[in-house]
Amino acid sequence: MFPDLTRDDVFRIETRRLWLRWPRARDAEAITRLAGERAVAEMTARIPHPLPRAEVDAFLLDARARNIDGTGLTLALSRRADPAGLIGIVGLSAGAEGVPELGYWLGRPHWGAGLMAEAACALVEAFFAYAGGEVLQASARVENAASQRVLASCGFQHAGRAQKAFPARGGDLAVDLYRLDRARWRDWQMPSAQAA
């Protein structure tokens, strides 16, 4: 899914306020604290609350393995002023029917500043511009308006509603489905093309 340039742990994406970099073992404490908070965890399919440190360690090993073999790309979000810190995670992984899926979470102290939209849009751009991707999918719990705004800000279009497995929540939950293809992404990048 991803080219060689993303398969080295020195790979990073820089945005105006963030660095998106490979997650590291030293990120485990911040992940445990931020992702394990109930308000964050309950909007995700796989993060339990409370979040055991052993699961974070396993996640880090798995994310790095998928980054190395190119089957996914998981990146830690750090503020440019604190590149060793971690405030969230954004990633692309294999989704249903072979269509890559965008997923993310952001620590609660960092909500409301547009940081996740900045990070998600940067990863989406890398997927289409450098990885030769053709289509992405994503989903958000129906009550997660903030996540829906992130997806809309990156050009995703609403594609319906469905039930999706949320193992950490104990069953299936209703989600809004989103989709973004290369043509729409290209138009999204060129506002003058939309007006024509």
TrEMBL record:
Q: Which SUPFAM superfamilies does the UniProt entry name for this protein?
A: Acyl-CoA N-acyltransferases (Nat) (SSF55729)
Q: Which InterPro entries match?
A: Acyl_CoA_acyltransferase, GNAT_dom, N-acetyltransferase
Under the heading Pfam families, the entry gives: Acetyltransf_3
State what protein this is by name. Answer: N-acetyltransferase domain-containing protein
Q: PANTHER family attached here?
A: GNAT FAMILY, PUTATIVE (AFU_ORTHOLOGUE AFUA_3G00765)-RELATED-RELATED (PTHR43792), N-ACETYLTRANSFERASE DOMAIN-CONTAINING PROTEIN (PTHR43792:SF16)
| MF (Gene Ontology) | acyltransferase activity, transferring groups other than amino-acyl groups
Check the record and name the Gene3D superfamilies matching this protein: 3.40.630.30
Q: Where is the N-acetyltransferase domain?
A: 17-157
